[in-house]
Write a structure and sequence with these properties.
The complex is a heterodimer.
Chain A: H1 2-13, H2 15-27, H3 32-44, H4 46-71, H5 78-93
Helix pairs in contact in A: 1-3, 2-3, 2-4
Chain B: H1 2-7, H2 19-34, H3 38-54, H4 65-94, H5 125-140, H6 144-154, H7 160-167, H8 171-192
Helix pairs in contact in B: 2-3, 2-4, 3-4, 5-8
Classes of the chains: A mainly alpha, B mainly alpha.
Chain lengths: 94, 194
């Protein structure tokens, strides 16, 4: 019984592991053991519950940001392009 | 050879004489979205064209010329990630550059790093904009490997297994990296959020 209390205490204290599981859960499914660990931890830890909410918002924002930056068009300088094509033409001749 | 290229305008064969005009900006945009370095990206585009010239015989016309060139460039981008990745692993072994967010013995949040409430919100357009611009700044401070993972995940929508395979990291390392990256990003956002 004392040993079991120790295990639960450890889970309750371990915010590093809990936040790790929070991140993992956003990408994939957790094992039963991990789900129980996270459940026990979040029950008693308001800081990690807060982390969970903030992490979700940041996750959405990240996704949005990368999608947008993939859509942003960049153009090369005309001079650079001319040089590029010249290099290609040179190789074509050989 | 010359004749082949003349023909190419009407067939699906590659047409190197027009590559730069047709594809350079597209390829440059592709590279720059994934590697935040204009000089490097310009070089990669040039290298892509030259590498493609060497492989003209391999082009089967099954995909478009652009898809084919992008595949060559993509490989070069991943190569840069890998090189940065190994440099990063070396520096990690020497000394972890990141602050320690948790108590080493029991994993509890360190007082200074424990999340505090902030009014971030992804549904409000104004707050969303502010969050995006802060995140952009925070992302630039992350190690290259983390940025690589984020861009593969969000831009290329690659699966975890594929990312691990390409970057040569183990799945368990992958979760640890993502976790660290998120804890780090969150802390950075909190610091900059007014």
């Amino acid at each position: 019984m004392i040993e079991r209390m120790g295990v639960i205490k450890k889970i309750q204290y371990d915010c590093r592991h809990a936040t790790y599981l929070i991140e993992k859960r956003q990408q994939t499914s957790l094992t039963l053991k991990e789900r129980i660990q996270l459940f026990i931890h979040l029950l008693g830890c308001s800081v990690c519950r807060l982390f969970l909410r903030q992490s979700r918002v940041i996750g959405h924002a990240l996704q949005h940001l990368f999608k947008r930056s993939a859509e942003r068009v960049h153009t090369l300088d005309e001079g650079v392009k001319r040089e590029m094509q010249e290099k290609i033409n040179e190789r074509l001749k050989n | 050879m010359k004749k082949l290229f003349k023909l190419s305008t009407t067939t699906t064969a590659p047409d190197p004489a027009h590559w730069v005009a047709t594809h350079a900006d597209y390829l440059y945009t592709y590279a720059l979205a994934r590697l935040d370095d204009e000089d490097l990206c310009r070089d990669l585009v040039q290298e892509t064209f030259l590498a493609a010239l060497e492989k003209l015989g391999e082009f089967r016309g099954e995909s478009s010329e652009r898809t084919w060139l992008t595949a060559i460039l993509r490989y070069k981008v991943i190569d840069v990630y890998r090189k940065k990745n190994s440099a990063w692993l070396v520096s990690l072994e020497a000394r972890d550059p990141e602050p320690e967010y948790f108590e080493p013995d029991n994993g509890h949040w360190k007082e200074a790093w424990a999340p505090r409430p902030m009014s971030i919100d992804h549904t409000d357009p104004t707050l969303r904009k502010e969050l995006a611009s802060i995140l952009e700044k925070c992302l630039q401070r992350l190690p290259a490997l983390w940025q690589a993972i984020f861009s593969m995940k969000h831009m290329d929508e690659m699966k975890t297994e594929a990312i691990c395979e390409e970057l040569k990291v183990t799945p368990s390392n992958y979760w640890v990296i993502l976790h660290r990256a998120k804890v780090n990003l969150r802390a950075c956002v909190e610091k900059m959020w007014s």
